[in-house]
Design brief:
The complex is a heterodimer of chains A (about 425) and B (about 400). With about 425 residues, chain A is an alpha/beta fold. In chain A, about 35% of the residues lie in helices and about 15% in strands. Chain B folds into 2 domains: about 260 residues, Rossmann fold (3-Layer(aba) Sandwich), CATH 3.40.50.10540; about 80 residues, formyl-coa transferase, domain 3 (2-Layer Sandwich), CATH 3.30.1540.10. The chains are: A alpha/beta (about 425), B alpha/beta (about 400).
Chain lengths: ~425, ~400
Amino acid sequence: MAMLTPYRVLDLTTERGLLCGQMLGDMGADVIKIEPPGGSAARAIGPFYNDAPHPDRSLYWWAYNRNKRAVTLDIERDAGRELLLRLVERADFFIESDNPGHMARHHLGFDDLAKINPALIYVSITPFGQDGPKASYADSDLIIMAAGGPLILAGDADRPPVRLGIPQAYLHASADAAVAALAAHHERMRSGLGQHIDVAAQQSVALATQAYILAAPLGSPEAKRISGGVKFGGFDLPLVFPAKDGYIALGFLFGSALGVFTAKLMRFICEQGFCDEATRDKNWIAYGEQLFSGAEPLAEFERVKEVVRTFTRSHTKAELLTLALEHGFLITPVTTVAEVVESPQFESRHYFQSVAHPELGESFRYPGPFAKFSATPIEYQRRPPTVGEHNFEVYRDELGLSENAIAELARAGVI
Amino acid sequence: MAHDLPLKDVKICDFMWVMAGPASTRILADYGATVVRIESPTRIDTARTLQPFFNNQLGPDSSGLFGNCNAGKFGISLDLGNAASRAVVHDLVRWADVVTESFSPKAMRAWGFDYESLRKVNPQLIMLSSCLMGQSGPLAKLAGFGNMAAAISGFHNLTGWPDRPPAGLFGAYTDYVAPRFSAMAILAALDHRRRTGEGQYIDQSQAECAIHFLGPAILDYTVNGRVQGRVGNSDAQFAPHGVYPAAGEDQWVAIACRNDDDWRSLCAAMGSEALARDSRYASAAGRREHREAIDASIAAWSRSIDRGEIEARLQARGVPAHQVQNSADAYADPQFAHRGHFVAVEHSTLGKFTVEGPRAKLSRTPAAVRRAAPTLGQDNQHVLESILGYDETRITDLVATGALG
């Protein structure tokens, strides 16, 4: 038995909150994805299998709907709403990500459903939260990243701030929502009562500022973006360096905890003939403070960084990774997606999982379980569902509808 | 607090440090778990040395990162290499439901605090180890932080401009992803234990968690063989989609047109009939093809207008837009304020110290930030006396061993 086997989740999320249900499904919950007839709008988001748009072949859909069953249901019509309410009676979690007020207008808000099932945990994932001055703002991933703080911190200094090309905002929010749902569930085991969980993506992504969202209230200067690093208090601190065949991430950092790594690296760089002993022997623990105070001129810091770059540029990414393992340097290669998937590290942990798609007669490698559990390992039991794949299984076997009744609902466009 | 916090009965013995680990137990503390954070008196937590600093002054307690990740926890200083610490650790493990740690693999084993050893002390123990690459594999012993994990799991290469080197995401990106997975793993394992009595060991690789946030790009490779690269701010679906200059130095506004309606509304806000009527721009595909010309037109319009004004004008027409906010903007943001995102807690030495509030609003049993992050060893007496029940003699003897620093 998996960790969350006893629990049922009704997942009504739009393209915004799909990861939440998947996380619960990965841990064993019975997740039923409820989509409008014809399928969720998320199925229209690419890329697609063989680049041919098709509702069952969206890789965006595949990425966030594993370990779910799927039914279609028009919840805006009375017949559809009634079916949903019957499912709600037996559900433990209900997840939705429509604009604030949308579900309530269809009499499917938290208050409506709590009357039917007082133990229900009702999770809402929205851009800015259920209320407040920006609750009805139009949004997208980029807008949330702008509003929540991470966007301004990344990018080249001479160009606009830049986001990661794969949308992130609702993944952060979905993950926060899944944690909150399980915390509420823990409480429900004592009280027997459900509650409403209101997650705002704007707040969730603020975590991706590494506490820099707190700079102003703490009385600290803002950080500024530079390519591959950050600008603190007037000096550029790069974290990406060139290698012979690409780039590496290198923690060239200072202070009592991190300066020791830099000291170790500089000893090696000196041994290799890339710098003199005076450069090697700088006080790397206090170096940051020396830069702040001006005791170390910025021109000298620029020279030192060039020394490090000359060293990294003379080695391949693989050579630098080997050196990192041998000497404990803070170095990793900047890898492409292909290098990630083919990495011996992930291979040795059997991370990527082959998932069969019988409808296509093929299997594909998916990102694997997010952790290894000794007693209850995560299993990929279901590939992402096709549109309405489990209509019969759910409506006939669980709600006891006759095949005729189901056919009638289909004719009427309810399912 | 009129209500009981959801996790009021959950007890965590927390050996985690830096960001990814402590950020996960911070979430659990917000929901009411009692978290005892163990810190080395000799090897300072790296997070204590990182910006931003309270009043911009470096000091052992002034890191905003440390303060943010450890609010709500009790802190005890304990030298794990000191033989006298062993009994204290065992007592904490006996008290705890969950042990968490985020050292490099083998560190806990070297101290004799690996899962197999600790479960002898507490047979129902749930233990979570979180590190960069996981407990096994050729890179298991790789030292490092989340910016390195982000690089090696594909994030850096996907962030930035196609004609420039990787811009990198800000800071330790995998440290922003992994904590939610850690917290969720712990809560699910607790539910399993409640039902079955069975504890377990959880081996979490921060890189493996984070890769889930690249799902579509990973599948694009494993399914289609395509290796995605850097695309700046362009979007596969939406056009125009970008960050545009506003009035003032280094001021920006993000704008996204999700569909043709958004595009027409944007043109109307810009007062540009010509753009709206241009048939080349009628579809998203056309707008993407002519991205440079469109972006130049938008920038020519936006660069003389205040970014908040652009946000207001476009949002009034239903077009996704937002000023690009730094900390000062966020601190003044009415929505963040409405959500209570910034919470000032009373720090034992620094006074009012602002941290981020809980991430989700629970209607009946809302989470709370109950105290500021502990100074090093701040709660030694409380933990030893009230949690572990040590008497004064035992505490005095322990202090004499130097185990507490």
